[in-house]
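forwarding from the other thread:

> can someone predict this with PRP?

sure thing
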Amino acid sequence: MGKVYVFDHPLIQHKLTYIRKKETGTKEFRELVDEIATLMAFEATRDLPLDEIEIETPVAKTKAKVLSGKKLGIVPILRAGMGMVDGILKLIPAAKVGHVGLYRDPETLKPVEYYVKFPSDIEDRDFIVVDPMLATGGSAVEAINSLKKRGAKHIIFMCLIAAPEGLKALEEAHPDVDIYIAALDERLNEKGYIIPGLGDAGDRLFGTK
Ligand code: PRP
Ligand code: URA
């Protein structure tokens, strides 16, 4: 089974409270999602491999560590996942970005795929799939299916708020995928919204309704 990491860092928890509040407007919501994504990426990249190289400081020769150059890819689930991409790219600017377009059918709550574009060297990259919300888990499971079907071997999933139902579904469908979340909420309501959650992440990010 993959590992589940819940980030209890005070900065993440504080910012999360403000994106939950219903009176938080689009501009602030977008900025906070971006900041939380950066903070989560900092933790989620903790195990990136390092190489040792010889360098010269102004006063001495020494050995120092640099990233070994592992190829990374970020895959936002459209639309709301887009809100997390720039925050992650601030820390790993060389990562390539693939996209998977999925929307939840409002009746069945099942994901419907409408767009896929991944980097061509998919088999050589480690991927971070991002979406602010893990509700029933259908979208995350489908996005990861889509990556694996095309050859991706190492994938982690990062979201802001998860429902227990979605977490269980994702763990069962993809036991090899580590899951990083900022908060584990109580449950889903009858319309598939996370309670207490933050409402519709895509609408709040992009100012649509
Ligand atoms: C939201 C959210 C996730 C999905 C989560 O997207 O951003 O992608 O729902 O729900 P699930 O875990 O039950 O699949 P939505 O379908 O509203 O599309 P949008 O991002 O385009 O608004
Ligand atoms: N998608 C959202 O944007 N919010 C939810 O609460 C559930 C799914």
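Residues 4-206 form a domain with the Rossmann fold fold (CATH 3.40.50.2020). thats all i got for now
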